[in-house]
Amino acid sequence: MCCRIVRSVGSSEGIAGISGNIGAAYLEMKQFREALPYLEQCLKIAETINAQNLLIDHYKNKYKVMVQNSKKRIAEIGARRTNTIEKAIEHVYEFQRNSGHFLTKLPKSLRGKASIVKDGCCFDGNILYYLNHFGYLVDPRTQKLLEFIYDYYDKDNTGWKCRAYPINLEAVFPVNCYMGAIKILKAFSMIPESKRPFEMREIISIEIEKILENKVYKYLRNPDGTRKDKAGWKRFGFPLFYQSDLLEVMDILSRLKIRDERMQDSINIILETQQKDGSWWLKDTFNGKMWVDIEKKNKPSRWITLRALRVLRNWYEL
Fold it and tell me: Across the chain, what does the average pLDDT equal?
C-alpha cells in the first residue's frame, strides 16, 4: 500500500516520505471499492427514512442504525452533500428539542419537544460533526445545538455528564464522559478557526489540557491511584461510533496543531504498530453489527493508514 516510514522521520527526507505516503493513501482512497456498497446502502436507507420514527436506540441497537451513525460514516468516508443527504438531515433535525439537544426518538408532543434532558454528549458531538461536514454549520438549528453544548459544559470538572459514564467513578480520572467529550472536540476541530467563537475556543483549550493530563489513553485509575492504560485504545479501529481510540484522539490534536511531550507515548505506539509494508491494520471493528462491513479485521486498513500518516506528518512538521 505505502512505503514504510523510516524511524528518522523527523528529517526532511522523512517528512517528504510521509507526505508522499499520504498522497498515495488518498489516491487509493479514491479507488477504494469496499466503501461504495456501504455508502450506497446508507443512501438507500436515507431515501426511505421518512417512514421511520427512530433515529437510534443508543443501547439496544448501537451500530445498525437508521440515520445517525450512517450519516456520520458517510461523512467520514468523504461523501458530498446531495439531495438525498439533505432529506435525511432534515429528518434528523426533527429529533432536536427546543433546547438544541438531540434525543433518540421523535417528540410526540409539545411537552416532548420542550425536554430539558442533558445527556449523551457523544450523540450531539457526532451529529455536529456531520452537520458541519455537509455545510449546515450556519443553520440556526445547528447554532442552537452549539448553544446547548456550551451551556451543558461542566467547567468545574471539564466535559459533559453522561448517565452511562463512569461505571465506577473510582476507576477513572475524568469525572465526566471522556469518550463523549472527544466526539465533541472532534466536531469542533473540523470547524475553521475563523468560525470558532470564544465559547468554543475556551472549551477546546480546556479539553486539550485534560487529554494531555491523561496522556491521551491513560485515563483509567489503578486501586493504588496510579494511572492505567486503556488497552483497547491501542487497537485502532474504523468506524468508532461513540467509542474512541488513541489514533483518533491524536488525529484531533494534530488537527488542532497541538504538539506536546505528553503525546510522545502515543506517537511511539503509532510508529510501533506500523506493518512491514508500511500500512496499519484494522484491529478493532464492528463488522457484523453494521449494515455493511468495512474492511477486514487484522488486515491492512486504508482508513487507519491514512489517519496514522496524517498524524505523523503533522507531528514532525509542527
Answer: 82
Say if CB 65 and CB 49 are below 8 A apart: no
Q: Which amino acid belongs to residue 19?
A: S
pTM equals: 0.82
Contact 91/139 with Cβ under 8 angstroms? no
Closest of 76, 66, 2, 1 to residue 35, by C-alpha: 76
What are the contacts of 206-209 at 24+ separation with CB within 8 A? 206/155, 206/158, 207/158, 207/159, 207/181, 208/253, 208/256, 208/258
- Work out the percent of the chain whose per-residue pLDDT is above 90: 54
Using 50, 70 and 90 to split pLDDT, how confident is the model at 207?
very high
Residue ranges of E strands in 166-275:
220-221, 227-228
- Residue 285 to residues 23, 63, 218: CA-CA distances in angstroms? 25, 11, 22
Question: Could you give the 3-state DSSP secondary structure of residue 172?
Answer: strand
Identify whether the C-beta of residue 73 lies closer than 8 Å to the C-beta of residue 38.
yes
Write out the three cell numbers for 13.
Answer: 527526507
For the chain, what is the total number of helices (H) and then of strands (E)?
Answer: 12, 2
**Count, residues in the chain:** 318
Beta bridge partners of 228: 220
By the 8 A CB rule, do 277 and 300 touch?
Answer: yes
* Predicted confidence (pLDDT) at residue 60 exceeds the cutoff of 50: no
Domain ranges of the chain: 1-31+214-318, 32-167
Do residues 312 and 14 make contact, with C-beta atoms less than 8 angstroms apart? no
For residue 183, the cross-strand partners are: none
